[in-house]
Specification:
By secondary structure, this protein is an alpha+beta fold. The chain has three domains: 80 residues, Arc Repressor Mutant, subunit A; 93 residues, YebC, transcriptional regulation domain (Alpha-Beta Plaits, 2-Layer Sandwich), CATH 3.30.70.980; 70 residues, YebC, transcriptional regulation domain (Alpha-Beta Plaits, 2-Layer Sandwich), CATH 3.30.70.980. Helix content is 48%, strand content 23%. The strands form three sheets. A four-stranded antiparallel β-sheet has the order 3-1-2-9. A four-stranded antiparallel β-sheet has the order 5-6-4-7, sandwiched between helices. Helix 2 runs antiparallel to helix 3, helix 2 crosses helix 4 and helix 6 packs across helix 7. The two termini are 20 Å apart.
């Protein structure tokens, strides 16, 4: 679980920078459009769409932008051209890396992702080459300093959480994908403010990296996340905090 805790640290430290980039809006619009196309335009019956809308609100996206994205998806047209695809490979030190993408041109995206891997000391693999190392879970991260640790653990278990891990400054609550929203809503109702809350891919084990290899991996991850077609990046790394601080 160490790697995922570090991942949460990276996301927090990069949040303001990412929000300032135009690509942040583009990515959320793609997720809203895709979620609405697959699950319908009513967020009350579409958990994926609700999460996407929550993310859009975190970025202060205008409500009209959200409505237009949903209409494009449910009314056909531009939204229907988007496709979901994942790319898998290995980064520096043999770290497994997965990039979830939404694109209107799979060949373009494939070429861009392959170039990013190659440029930063990694190599793109075939479908399924690393996916088996990850499991889809709901993950909520809380900053220790902002919560009563014992009470949070008790409330999370009562809400239906599968596992709770404490490491460094972060408390991580894990759920099945099916129970994610149930647990999140229960903890939200008790006024716990999560640092990150998402359904994501959690690695079954992690690889410790230090020095130059760790820095190269962080650059690979950053380059992937800067690509407008990449929605999420997953990797099974464990990197010292001091390197993460320098890299973000």
């Amino acid at each position: 679980m160490s790697g995922h805790s570090k991942w949460a640290t990276i996301k927090r430290s990069k949040a303001k920078t990412d929000a300032a980039r135009g690509s942040a809006f583009t990515k959320v619009i793609k997720e809203i459009t895709t979620a609405a196309r697959h699950g319908g335009g009513d967020p009350t019956g579409n958990p994926r769409l609700r999460l996407a809308i929550d993310k859009a609100k975190e970025l202060n996206m205008p409500a009209d932008n959200i409505k237009r994205a949903i209409l494009k998806a449910t009314g056909g047209g531009e939204g229907a051209q988007l496709e979901e695809v994942s790319y898998e490979g290995y980064g520096p030190g043999g770290v497994a890396v997965m990039a979830e993408c939404i694109t209107d041109n799979k060949m373009r995206t494939l070429n861009e992702i392959r170039f990013i891997f190659s440029r930063h000391g990694g190599n793109l693999g075939e479908s399924g080459s690393v996916a088996w190392m990850f499991k889809k879970k709901g993950v909520l991260n809380y900053e220790k300093a902002k919560v009563n640790e014992d009470q949070l653990m008790s409330d999370a278990v009562d809400a239906g959480a599968d596992d709770i891990n404490t490491e460094e400054s972060i408390i991580t609550v894990e759920t099945t994908p099916e129970k994610f929203e149930q647990v999140k809503n229960a903890l939200d109702a008790k006024k716990y403010a999560s640092e990150t809350a998402e359904i994501t891919m959690v690695p079954s084990n992690t690889i410790r990296l230090e020095g130059e290899e760790a820095q190269k991996l962080l650059k690979l991850i950053d380059a992937l996340e800067e690509n407008e077609d990449v929605q999420k990046v997953h990797a099974n790394f464990d990197i010292p905090d001091e390197i993460i601080s320098k890299g973000t």
